[in-house]
Structures are given as C-alpha cells and as structure tokens.
Specification:
The protein is mostly helical. It is built from eight helices and no strands. The N and C termini lie far apart (64 Å).
Length: 184
C-alpha cells in the first residue's frame, strides 16, 4: 500500500459517522433547513456558506458578508470567516480546524470537532436560545478558604498517603543474591 493511501486510510479511520450525523442534525435544526439529499456532509460544508449561515444564526451579525459566488479563493474566505467568528465566540484555537481540513477533505473529523466545540460554547451564551450540541461544559466552582482552614489541612495525612508505622526492611534481601545450597 502506498504512503498516500496509508495516510488517507488513517484519516478516514478517525471519522465518526455518528458524530457527523449529530453535527448535521444540529446544523439543520439551527438553520431550519435540511441538507440536500445525496450530497456528502463535507461537500455541503466545503464552500463555507452553510458554516457562515450557522455562525450568523448562533450570533447574529458575526459574519457581515458571505461570498455566494466567485472562485475557490472566495469560498475559502468563507471558511476563514467562520473560523475567526468561532474563535471570537469563544472556541479555543486548538478546537478550530484548518482551512485545508475541509477544503481538501484532509481531516473532516477535525471539522466535526470544531462543530462540537461551537455547539458546547453555545451553553455559555445566555442570549443564544437555540439547540445545543454536545455536553454542557462544567461551570467553575471557585472556593475561598480561610488561613485557618488551609493550616488545618496541612496536618492531615491523606488516606492515599498510607502509614509506615512498624514497617521495617527486615527480610527483604535487597541487593543480595539468593543462595541455594544443594545437598551432597
């Protein structure tokens, strides 16, 4: 098998059809329109138009101009606008796919990861009233302890630390080889 085929097979193995279906349903639900029948998930997203519409549905006005015609460069510009809008919305840089991941179908799994990151981020925005995608992120649980409480905790030995009361190294034979004497 050629190296190119091995790389392609590895990328396909990372894809999760169930997650792609969930992301597709979420996009359809947010936008209120279905994907066209017979068009692959990644092919429908490739020009970036659907992604820009999705971002504007989540946060109105986040992408001011969506290119609906023009060459490849204009369509890739849509993808870049979506990526920037997702980052501005709160998605971490590591969660946002690279343009080639979608445009050249290099890593569709990463595109789905970005959609899930965006779907989770919607939980953090109270102004968004639409459907969410993925589990709700945990809220921060900040605690303030007094000096007295912190000092009291320093004297406690945790159960995982164990105890060495009465422990010795007797009978452990560390470093010495075992001698077996055979009778004559």
């Amino acid at each position: 098998m050629s190296l190119q085929r091995q790389v392609h097979a590895k990328i396909l193995a990372k894809r999760d059809p169930q997650q792609e279906a969930e992301a597709k349903e979420w996009i359809e639900s947010v936008l209120g329109k279905k994907f066209p029948a017979g068009v692959a998930f990644e092919d429908h997203l490739k020009d970036g138009i659907v992604l820009c519409e999705l971002m504007n549905a989540i946060q109105p006005g986040s992408i001011n101009k969506i290119n609906t015609s023009g060459g490849d460069f204009k369509m890739m510009e849509n993808i870049n606008k979506f990526q920037q809008a997702a980052k501005n919305y709160g998605c971490a840089d590591v969660d946002v796919f690279q343009t080639v991941d979608l445009w050249e179908k290099k890593d569709i799994a990463q595109v789905v990861t970005t959609l899930f990151a965006l779907g989770r981020e919607t939980y953090r925005h109270s102004e968004y009233k639409g459907p969410h995608l993925g589990p709700k992120p945990a809220d921060e649980c900040k605690r303030d302890f007094t000096e007295e409480q912190l000092k009291a905790g320093q004297t406690v030995i945790g159960l995982q630390a164990g105890s060495n009361k009465g422990a010795t190294q007797a009978g452990q034979n560390i470093g010495a080889s075992r001698k077996i004497l055979l009778g004559k």
